[in-house]
Amino acid sequence: MPIHRTCDGAKRRDFLKVGALGMSGLSLGHFLQLSHAGEVNKVAKAKSAIFINLPGGPTHMDTFDLKPDAPSEYRGEFNPIDTNVSGIQISEHLPELAKVMDKFVILRGVSHTLAAHALGSEYVNTGNRPLPSLEFPGYGAVISKEMPTVPELPPFVSIPQTNQRPGYLGVQYAALHTGATPRAGQKFSVRGLELRDGISVSDVERRTSLRAELDQKFHSLEQDSSLLRGLDKFNQQAYDMITSPLAREAFDVSQESPAYAETFGESPFGQSCLLATRLIEAGVRFVSISTGGWDTHRDNWNVLKDRLLPPFDQSLAALFAGLEAKGLLEETVVLVTGEFGRTPKINTERIGRDHYPRAMFMLMAGGGIQGGRVIGASDATASGPLNDAISPDDVAASYYHALGIDHTKEYHTSTGRPVMIVRDGNVIPELFA
Asked: What is the pTM of this model?
């Protein structure tokens, strides 16, 4: 999957990677949290989550919030089409999603005030408005901490990378980055999960034993370093994963039936969505997918209809249908978002739309959320919320609620500062009505 550079020069990649560590050369960025689960709502339906990030900021007016009756300087070139839910229309260039509208919810009138890519991205990836004095953990880090999985699997996988960081929770809650996307019909493996260059499982076991002896020598130092403690658990996770076939098989999309895999298409985003369904089925708790290029200041409509929307439409529709086919949609909550929307008024000089956080869309599905609905609304020109705004904080609180995680629960930073998981959000009750 290509890396897209946004207009402010920021590359849409993760900001933290754990490099190759240990004598086995493993490149694993996360380990399993082995402590007990946190305060979990026993009636919650979701057991896992998928987060789809659209870096660059997709236009709401040309996708899920069209205004065909708005003045020409606002409405754009695309027409709305009916979906399989009476009364709901979306863009004509999203025909496959129109066929599965009953499986997801459109949130309209989502609004905030951060028009810079980095700040907006940090906001929607954590559910907390950024602060200069504190780095909040992303969704994947919190879910990894609250919802353990089997030792052989990473709880948090990003395809191919993610903007979500562990923040004050520490490096032990970072993601395992695949670093690449699968190719249709080909075996896919993640560096560090395959033994190469003649290394055997016995070799790994011997090297792990040697490392354990060395760890004993530096035990007092490790007690004084949260980073070293995190890396020690990281190494244990790496060992558990590499000596078990479960993780390697979970990443191998070539094992899916051709009929199932074909619906996702051959695009990098489609194959990422296919991999996500396989990882969730295997027991991974949180999968983040990133597909960029949405910073359409120039040539907005040609870029959308020729390059961005066709694979997005096919792949996301296949994800919703594929999760349902595997019996996983009810227990997997899905959130799709960019960092902001784009200006309702067209930039006629560049034939595009610019940054616009005051109005945007988000999509949610699964995890007890009844699809086939639109929640919230924008005004007649999609310039702002029609009534009460939906904030990224509210969406975050609802995302966690679907998983049974209390968003008001407090964690403590390394200095002992108490911080709620989501500081300012409230659950959107209509999502769960």
From this structure: 0.85
